[in-house]
Amino acid sequence: MKSAFAFILIGVVSAGFALAEEKTAPVIRPDLTVASDGSGDFKTIQEAINAVPKTNDQWQIIFVKDGLYHEKVRIDPGFITLRGQSRQGTRIEFAQGTDDFTNHPDGIGRAVVNINGSDCVLQNLTVKNTHGVIGPHAFAIYGHGDKTVIVDCNVWSQGADTIAL
Description:
Elements: H1 2-22, E1 32-34, H2 45-50, E2 60-64, E3 67-70, E4 73-75, E5 80-84, E6 90-94, H3 98-103, E7 113-115, E8 120-123, E9 126-129, E10 135-137, E11 141-143, E12 148-151, E13 154-157, E14 159-160, E15 163-164
Parallel strand pairs: 1-2, 2-5, 3-6, 4-7, 5-8, 6-9, 7-11, 8-12, 9-13, 10-14, 11-15
């Protein structure tokens, strides 16, 4: 009797796993879309971020279509997700050395992506500091916010401290 019960239990558990595998994750639509070719709500990532209030307390998904975005980005609002269309195709690139920033500071920050807001997610994209000098600090991502998550991203720099959170 015990072996028959165990067999039935294993069958039920196996069927449950099979059903779980068939389900797909729900698709969450973005709130804003960025496309360098003008087919989105914004042409630059910074324009999309600037459209979100700095006091934001609701998740905002900014979908970034494939393309080369030659810009520095500053994320001040919280609860922002930057989701690229593809890890290889969505590229944020800029040449920024820390010494250059220290000598000529701007309002954006010392990295390619500067995160000041909490609860930030970078997903499915590439961030590259193209400064090109091997050795000194050349941050790709720099941040002060709490709870930053980087998922399925390429993060590149030839300088020291590619990521500093």
